[in-house]
Design brief:
The chain contains eight helices and no strands. The chain is an all-alpha fold. Helix 2 crosses helix 4 and helix 6 runs antiparallel to helix 7.
């Protein structure tokens, strides 16, 4: 019953809490908070530590025009979920928007290794090649 009482007092989801922290104190503080919460609450059901949580945090930061905070969070998410093509795609998209074609290409190639039939990733790699004016390597 203690878990139910604790849940009743929690007012924000994990991603909302992390967005607030990252916005006010930066990505490093959000990493620290995520690790602290994960160590304390993983398996309790109080917070969602699955892959989409950090993607949501990064998306909100990108919407707030804070790519320098969002990209490290996406990198961290890709480290936590190394077998996820989605985590790699999520990392590649803002890198591409920022003009960091090398980082975007690396992320998309990793995604393609994980999920070779992903047409969106193939199209993103083709778009990078066109932006560079290169032929496929």
């Amino acid at each position: 019953m203690g878990g139910l009482q604790a849940r009743r007092f929690r007012t924000k989801s994990l991603h909302e809490t992390l967005v607030t922290t990252a916005t006010s104190r930066g990505a490093t503080a959000a990493f620290d908070q995520y690790r602290e919460f994960r160590n304390e609450y993983l398996g309790s059901g109080l917070y969602d530590f699955r892959e989409p949580t950090l993607n949501i945090v990064a998306t909100r930061l990108l919407q707030a025009k804070k790519p320098d905070d969002a990209i490290p969070i996406l990198m961290f998410n890709a480290e936590l979920f190394p077998k996820s093509a989605g985590a790699q795609v999520a990392l590649g998209l803002p890198a591409m928007e920022k003009g960091d074609l090398a980082a975007a290409e690396t992320a998309f190639k990793k995604a393609l290794e994980i999920e070779p039939t992903n047409r969106g990733v193939t199209q993103s790699l083709e778009e990078i090649r066109k932006k560079r004016g290169n032929q496929p390597r």
